[in-house]
Structure formats: C-alpha cells, structure tokens
Design a protein that fits this description.
By secondary structure, the protein is mostly helical. It is 80% helix and 0% strand. The protein has eight helices and no strands. Helix 4 crosses helix 6 and helix 5 packs antiparallel against helix 6. The longest helix has 98 residues. It is rod-shaped. It starts with a helix and ends with a helix.
Length: 297
C-alpha cells in the first residue's frame, strides 16, 4: 500500500517537472549569420513576440540560446545587421488592448523588457561579442523608451477619458435641463392657449346672448308701442319708450363690460355710457316737463 502511494507521488512529481521543463523550454527562431536582411528582420520580430508571450523567467539554457541568436542576428562587420526600431514598435504595440488604451503598459511589454535586460546582462558577464552587446543595449533602450511613451500615452488617454466623461455628463445634464424647461414652457403655453380659447368661447356666447336679448327687447318694445299707440298720449308713450331704452342700453353695457373683463378685451368706454345715459335722462325730463306744460295749458 505504501509502495503504491510512493509510486503515485513520484509519477505526479515527474508530471510537474515535465510541465515546468515544457514551460521553460522557450523556442528560438531559426537564423544563420549569413541570412539576408529580410530573413533577419522576420526572425527578429518573431523572437520579440516569443519573449513578450513567454510567461516565466528564462532559464540559463534559454538565455544562452538567445545570446547565440542575437550573435547570429547582428552578424559580423562583413555582414552587419541593425534591427529596425519600427519592427520593435510593431511588436510592442500589438500587445496593447485596442479597447482600453488607459490601462498602462501591457504585461507583454514589461515581460519583453525584463527578458532583454536579463539576456544583455548575461551576455556582458559571459564575454559575448561587442557587436552583440551593443545591439542588445540599443534594443533595450528602444524598448525602455517605447515603454515610457506607452505609460505617458496611457496617462494621457486616462486623463482625456475623464475629461470626456465629465463633458458628457455636463452635456447630458444641460440637455435634460433644456428639455425640462422646454417641457414646462410648452405646458404653460398649452394652458395659456386653453384659457384663451375658453375666454373666446365665453365671449362668443356672451355676444350671441347680448344680440338675442337686444333683438328680443327691441321686438317686444316695438310691439308694445305699436299696440298702445292709439290708447295713450304721446307724452306717456315717449316716457315709456325712453325708460325702456335707458334700461336696455345699460343692461347691454353691463353685459359687454362683464365679457370684456373675462376676455381681457377693451371695455366699453365709460364716457360713452355716461353720455348716452345723460341724453336719456334729459329726454325723460323734457318729456315730463312737456306733459306738465300740456296739462297746465
């Protein structure tokens, strides 16, 4: 029983070690010292991508293999190669999240910088060629420079995003306030229009009622006067007509004043009412005087 457990433990440990070795077994692009520039650029780009994606520290074997790779890459004086800054930038910018540019420097770029720094330091300690060390220093400097630029760009994007969100909130607030004001103004205009229509309806009905009253009063007065023309004296007939006319005129004036007050229209002029009433009063007084003179005479 103990033997079986021990064998299972050894088997599990072997699997773990194999996974670790497999994980640390970083691939190396294939390149020769006499490769042409296009082949070296392609191998250089592929190597940077591997060093970005490799998620664990390079072991000694992997570091030595990459020192050999960069020694072949940068070549000799007869076959000199200088890596392109644009190729390094393309690999580094491919690590960015296109949806979120304000998350700082991508992990792949940090990983690339750490791996290149480690390869350069080991190359210096193991006595690699001066051309190899110089190329690695330039590559490290390019990566560090672009990393700082990414960090600055991320800060700027974050700042711009905050400003944009603030402006968006202010704009939405102003739009909401404008819509609320417009809605309130629209409701007030509707209410004013409704009140105005109601006043107009009242005015129309009032005018119609006044016309009907005036017409009926005039008809009744005319009928009464014509029927009693032969039965009463001219003085009594005149007095009755003047009193009825005075009453009807003031009744219509009062009605029109009431309507004008409701509809905010121009009221009947007071001087006109006073003048007409004065004429009626004078005529009534003259009729009474004429009646007494006729009796005394």
């Amino acid at each position: 029983m103990i033997t079986n457990d021990f064998e299972e433990f050894l088997s599990s440990l072997q699997d773990v070690l194999e996974n670790v070795n497999r994980k640390n077994n970083v691939s190396i692009p294939n390149i020769n010292s006499d490769s042409n520039e296009d082949e070296k650029r392609k191998a250089f780009t592929e190597a940077l991508k591997i060093l970005c994606d490799f998620d664990s520290s390079l072991d000694d074997n992997g570091i030595n293999n990459y020192i050999d790779f960069f020694t072949k890459l940068y070549g000799t004086e007869e076959n000199e190669f200088r890596h392109m800054y644009s190729d390094a930038c393309e690999v580094m910018f491919s690590q960015l999240d296109t949806k979120e540019f304000d998350n700082g420097v991508p992990f792949g770029v940090v990983n690339l910088e750490n791996n290149i720094t480690m390869i350069k330091e080991v190359a210096e300690r193991t006595g690699a060629s001066e051309r190899t060390i110089s190329g690695l220093k330039k590559l490290q400097d390019h990566i560090s420079l672009e990393k700082l630029r990414m960090r600055y760009m991320a800060a700027q994007n974050k700042h711009n995003k905050e400003i944009t969100e603030k402006l968006s909130k202010d704009f939405k607030k102003k739009i909401k306030s404008s819509l609320d004001n417009a809605n309130t103004s629209f409701k007030e205009q509707i209410k004013e229009t409704k009140d105005s229509l109601q006043k107009n309806y009242i005015t129309i009905l009032g005018i119609f009622a006044a016309v009907v009253i005036a017409f009926m009063s005039a008809s009744m007065l005319s009928s009464s006067v014509l029927e009693s023309m032969n039965d009463v004296s001219i003085y009594r007939l005149s007095f009755t007509m003047l009193v009825l006319g005075f009453f009807i005129f003031n009744l219509l004036c009062a009605l029109f004043m009431f309507l004008s007050k409701i509809s905010n229209a121009n009221a009947v002029q007071r001087w006109f009412v006073i003048t007409v009433d004065s004429v009626f009063v004078v005529l009534i007084v003259l009729t009474i005087i004429a009646r007494f003179i006729h009796i005394l005479g």
